[in-house]
Structure of F-box domain-containing protein:
Amino acid sequence: MRLRMKDAGSPSSSTEAAAAAGASSSTPASLASASSLNESVELVPISEPPSPPHAEAMAGPAMEMLREGRVEGHLSYNRPLQIRGLRDIRVASMQHMNMVQPQPDVQIDHNVINRMAMQLAVDFHMEGDFLEHFLDAPSSSQVVGLNATHEALTTEMPSWFESSVELLLRSVEPSPSGGRTNLLAPAEGHVSSGPGSHISLIHKRPKVLGSSMNDQIASSKVCHPPSLGFAYNTANQSSAIASPQLSVQDNSTDQQDNSSDRMRQDNSNSEVALGGESSSMYVIEDLLHTVFSFLDQRSLCQAARVCRQWYAASKHEDFWKSLHFGNQITQDQVASVCRRFPRAMELSFKCVQGVEDLARQAVHSLRHLEKLVINKGSLSESFFNMLASGCPHLHFLSIHDVILGTLTSQDVLICHRNLVVLEVTNCRVMRIGVRCTKLEQLSLSHTNMASVTLNCQKLLSLDFSSCMKLSDTGVRLSASHCRGLMALNISQCSYISDETLRDICMECPQLQVLDASLCPNISLQGVRMPVLKKLKLNHCEGITSSSMGALSQCAMLEAITLDACVLLTSVILNLKWLERISLADCYKLVELTLQCPALVDIKVTDCTALMRLDISSESLKSLSLEKQSSLATLTLDCPNLLVLSLVECDSLTNSISEVLSDQGGCPKLNSLTLESCESLTTLCFTSTTLQKLSLTGCQNLVRIELACVNLQCFVLDGCCQLTHVTLAPVGLQSLNLGICPHVTDLKIEGSAMVSVDLRGCGDLSKANIICPQLSSLDASYCSSLDDKCLETATAACPSIQSLILACCPLVGPDGLVSLKKLSNLIILDLSYTFLTDLDPIFESCKRLKVLRLLACKYLKDSALDALQSDETLPELKELDLSYGELSHRALEGVLGNCTYLTHVEVNGCANLGDLVWEIESLESTHNMHDWQCEFQPLDGSAGIFNDASPGCSSFHSSFAVPARVSKTWKRKAAFPHLLQQLNCVGCPNMRRVKILDAVAFQHLSYLNLSLSCNLKEVSIHCLSLSNLNLSQCTALECLQINCPRLISLSLQGSNVTTVELVEGALQGCTSLETLDIRNCSKIFAEDLKDVRAACPRLRRLLSSTS
């Protein structure tokens, strides 16, 4: 049995048409547009048409997509939704509910689409324009709906909501893989896959009533994949669709017969039979109700388009307690929605034309209305009279930006016996009267009325802010009728005077909150407010120092705001319960004295004339003062103060040290900030609690003496005049004094100190560093540091591992001998010093791994001879001899004989000549065999020349090996070489580089020969080389590279003569990925293709011509 759509014009009873129209008009607010359609639709049973002959030929993605549209068309309750593409709307809605994943794009045969569309038109009894509507671009209404769906899709859902939806889906349709499935699409292998099939829903899932959430999830996972469908109630013409249920059934051959028998039995009884007890249905409904209760109205309307069950569930009155109507809403739509949900309790109109008529009609249907909000429009006095009689339960009324009254009379009287909150803001009215016996809160803010009459005995809060036309007498009379008033806002009421304020305080003895900001005539003279707790007097020109007497009488005062009181010069308060005070932009304030034990918050900013500040509080934990340029004296008696920040207090003197000490008024101070305090020159104090100290920008600070055992953070940025620093003892782990170039005396005692940076302290001549855990000391550019300071530091800091003494010209052999005390030293930097001999280093630093000797121009050639023995510094791995004056013999001795080094740098060495490492031809095979045996690896493994063929070139260099090598050379030239990185940047006398793999550089991976302007020939055969840099080698003429592991090659700015030279050089670089030939003038754009052909694995080609 299937369903077909029936037009309103076809033969049917008037009852059926009326029922269809009633169903159409009972949609929610966001779906109310559907009620205005010209066609009414109903579902009636029809016979099944025969399968088309071409049905089997329509398999594939296109048929699956159109079959989904067919199934939805059969279940649709509105024909225009079929024509407008219900399939896309449903998928978007189900994506919003996190039910299905977006399907990937598929290639569709349009001929198949045309045939299926024609078949659908036959099934639905449509005209030939169905294909055009179904495949054409979406209509404007579709675009609006899909945009709303996309907006809902971009809203992030909480995790608990996704879990609820997941549980709901598993209860409705479990998947064998645990994933989500399509709710309406037929299951795999189901008999409904065809144009003539019906939809079956005769399945039952296990009962889970009374079980926990985890039990429900577990029970849903064990279900077998069922087939889904709907059973229809044919007792009436509405053909209501029941909610689906599941059951675990075996996939036997009689499944279809059993389903058909049950369907016939259920239809004969005119009931919905889903194979399970009715009690199990409540699980799905309860889950739906729980999930939908967290959705807004827009999301509910989107969920209603998924299926009929969700549509019915979304219309539950619990979800529509609050109705919100915007612009372009019609009176019929408002009436329809209000009749559908008569128990709604909240109603709002925003920017609606004819709001009074719409509100009247809505109120007529909503007898339980409690809250009404109207934004923009016009309301007459009769509307308020209607509210008094038609809305007995109304307790909240908000009217904003509305014209009250009529054209002839702008007088409004609001009477309601149950109203509790009334807001009439930014409205236009002449006179307003309020008579509400239960009213507790009234706001008339920004309403330009001239007169107000109040009769509200229970009023607690009254807001007259920005009512600039309201007279002084009008405010007085209004407040006098509210003797229980506790909060009054009369800000920006320019006519208010001290006399009015005195009368209000007398008539309202329980007044606790007063806001009189922007009232220029108030000075508080003679005003008594004994129970006042909160007071705001911002921008009150009449508030002066004499007004503080009236504030002192407010014994219960808890919060005071006196911002921008420009005539206030002195504030002296002694209030027991005062907790907060704000004094911002008080330009004439000179003195502030607060004796308030409960004070917890002080805001004092831009009080440029403030000179004296005295605060006493037992509750204050944080104090921040910014831009107090005149503050010179600060007195604090705050035993619980933890954070103190004084920023740009230019006049602050050295007396602040007394306040900060343990004997001062802040014994628990934890964090101190003294930034840009230019008058501060000396800071000396002792604190056992201070952990963080910042002195950034204190340019005139000269001396610091601190004894803070728990200090962990110390910032001295911008203290350029600092000369004496004593930190004994401190809890710091690291200290940076490199930004203080004028420090001369330094004393540090830190048991936890690990790193000290003294870079740039050129005047430092006395350094007493006692840090037993210190591991890193950087004293580079300390030109005044001598051997005595070095001996003291090494004796007190035996754990140093890294010592940087670059540009320390006074450090000599005597100081280097003291390095014996540093048994863990592994990094030593003596660059730019006047060393001539390295014997003290060789004797003292046996565990050294990194040695830097840059620009040591006085270093002798013989100083490096000891390095050719691996017993001198057995753990040395990195050596830097750049920019020195060493001869070619000394440098090649290091490169050729120090085989244990992994990183060598000889950048800028003008005396370095050619690097040629090759094997010359031997006189006989016997000599070749003897030579190979002499160079067997020390570990006893196979030699590297075992595969060399007769006639192989022999080892040749300026330190050439003779044809018959003595056995005494075995230790010096113990190949293979461990060198990994070699930097020879900017060596002007290097003309030829020839490195063959026979020399056994098995670990060499990086070679940098850039800026060697006279380099002409490069020939490299190395199996391990991965990075070669020949940039700016302008004289390069011959290039031969046979490096199968080379990944990156840079020829930028090199004078490569022809592109053929590059192609030939790259033949042996099969792994090259990056080639840089920028600024190579001899390589043109048309040559790049040949370059790429020579390197098939090339990924990046950098060229100026590309």
